[in-house]
Specification:
InterPro entries: Carb-bd-like_fold, SbsA_Ig. By secondary structure, this protein is mainly β. 4% of the residues lie in helices and 42% in strands.
């Protein structure tokens, strides 16, 4: 290049690099920052062949979406009905889904491809639920349907995302390992609809499961069913409603067991026991001083052995005198345990219910309380005359008794070392600050109950606003008034169990025996209890 040229070689090189970087930078696609999160599942733009095609003879189906998609657990989620020996192959390619049919299709047959929750978008993982593609190899499509609602049998609440499926009567395989190919999930109101069904007799089920594999696992899942087969002929079946329930386990099992880091032994059962009993069978000499606490429903237990010198220990579990199972626990000779005495209470937002005793609940059995290290302050002044006594029904609970006064602030102090627990464990300082709740915050509800048949038995239950906790329960078989005295203000509901077998408890269903749960009815009124107010209501139980 001549000496008088406008640019040198180096300048031209630098200019080229700069322009290339600029062009590449402009061409780089970046995800926009900020803005609302995408909560919309992929939308179908086009299907080839079209959905609901008759006289279908293609080998591949291509579905186009409005955004990039991916497949999630397609081997578990996807199904085709009728089933094929060689299932279709699914491939996600950018915004397209390709379905390749490997097996031949039967003549004059309607096929339903159900994708379950297999299709999601790439960025946010939004699921396209209950998407189906329907085709017919003949001139017409199967067009019958079954629809209804799924509710919880105990609370009556609609079940969201429950799986509803049917089996042809001759292929009912609920207790097998075969997944249903005709299924759908319920919407936010518990509604479902199964479409494009052919004539026939079916068994129908609803499943609320944890594994998501559409196979009923009695241990963990809830189930609903209709005993009588559904017959689909010339018209659709509407209002086919199901109620799901948790079956009682047929055979006793220990679901979980462990030797905890404080030396206690805990076990969880798959049944609620009636009169449980635990016995240390090996080594038998440490059985005498063991301490046992079952929970209120007798389906879990905690055990403390005062002698931890064993290498292994065997514990026999009995109910009503009958041996159910024996469990072994093993510890290492060098195992060490960490124990700290802690205390919870029954205060309600630092307020003591004036109609209940003040209770402390410890995490370890207590051997001794040094009352000289326990102080009760009333308006900052130390007081005497209070007592701390063990509860008769729970070895971990203690009642604190005193003549509590309104508007006074109380501080209960358990100084360091005041409490001696099992294994000579001492507490660090425990401090509880509270006031006596006002009696004006509580009200009374009188419920005049009218039964339809005095020869039958009913269980009256008062439940909380969410209907998931029983506040009160009583068996009745005649007209009577039930008084709920001094209850904290709140919203409650009356629930009636039609106690068919008169055993005083609500009995759940049994699929194998075709038994539905005992019927439950909720009173039509919301029974709100107002503070410092007496309410009277009539509850007329309808006939079953």
């Amino acid at each position: 290049m001549p000496k008088n040229a406008k640019y040198s070689k180096n300048q031209i090189l630098y200019l080229g690099v700069f322009l290339t970087s600029l062009i590449l930078g402009c061409a780089t696609m970046r995800t926009p920052e900020g803005g609302p999160r995408d909560k919309t599942p992929p939308k179908v733009l086009k299907m080839e062949p079209k959905n609901l095609t008759t006289n279908f003879n293609a080998k591949k189906i291509v579905i186009e979406f409005d955004e990039y998609i991916k497949l999630n657990n397609e081997f578990k989620e996807f199904s085709i009905s009728p089933e094929q020996e060689k299932p279709p192959v699914l491939k996600a390619k950018l915004k397209h889904l390709e379905i390749t049919l490997q097996d031949s299709l039967e003549k004059n047959t309607t096929y339903t491809l159900n994708f379950g929750k297999a299709i999601t978008d790439v960025n946010e993982g939004n699921i396209l639920k209950n998407f189906t593609y329907v085709l017919s190899t003949g001139p017409t499509l199967d067009s019958l349907s079954i629809s209804g609602k799924v509710r919880n049998s105990l609370t009556g609440a609609p079940e969201i995302d429950a799986t509803v499926f049917i089996f042809p009567l001759e292929r009912d395989s609920l207790f097998g390992k075969k997944k249903p190919s005709i299924f759908t999930t319920t919407d936010s109101s518990g509604n479902y609809k199964l479409n494009n069904l052919k004539k026939g007799s079916y068994k129908i089920y609803a499943l609320k499961e944890k594994s998501g594999d559409r196979i009923y696992q009695q241990l963990n899942d809830e189930i609903g069913f209709i005993k009588t087969p559904l017959v689909l002929d010339k018209s659709n079946l509407d209002s086919v409603n199901l109620q799901i329930f948790k079956e009682l386990a047929v055979n006793f099992r220990v679901l979980d067991k462990k030797l905890n880091n404080d030396g206690s032994i805990s076990m969880v059962f798959n049944q609620q026991l009636k009169k449980p009993q635990l016995t240390v069978t090996e080594p038998a000499n440490i059985d005498l001083n063991k301490k046992v606490q079952f929970n209120k429903t007798n389906d879990s237990v905690k055990v403390w052995l005062t002698d931890m010198g064993f290498d292994s220990v065997k514990i026999a579990i009995k109910d009503e005198g009958k041996l159910l199972e024996t469990e072994r626990f093993t510890r290492g000779k060098r195992d060490t345990y960490t124990r700290n005495i802690q205390a919870t209470d029954n205060l309600e937002s630092n307020s003591l219910n004036p109609y209940k005793p003040f209770q402390l609940h410890f995490n370890l059995p207590i051997e001794n309380i040094d009352m000289s290290k326990v102080t009760l302050l009333e308006d900052s002044i130390p007081r005497k005359g209070f007592t701390l006594t063990k509860d008769s029904t729970n070895i971990l609970s203690y009642n604190v008794a005193y003549k509590w006064q309104k508007k006074e602030e109380y501080i209960l102090v358990l100084a360091e070392g005041a409490i001696t627990g099992i294994f000579n464990t001492k507490n660090k300082e425990i401090r509880k600050t509270f006031k006596l709740g006002s009696s004006d915050d509580y009200g009374t509800l009188t419920l005049k109950v009218e039964v339809p048949d005095t020869a039958k038995n009913y269980i009256l239950q008062l439940v909380n606003e969410k209907k998931d906790q029983v506040i009160y329960s009583e068996s009745i078989n005649k007209n009577k008034s039930v008084i709920f005295s001094k209850y904290r203000q709140g919203i409650y509901y009356a629930r009636i169990v039609y106690d068919t077998n008169k055993n005083g408890i609500w009995d759940t269903g049994d699929v194998a025996k075709g038994l539905q749960p005992e019927k439950i009815w909720y009173g039509p009124k919301e029974l709100s209890i107002r503070a410092n107010f007496d309410r009277n209501e009539v509850l007329t139980i309808p006939k079953e």
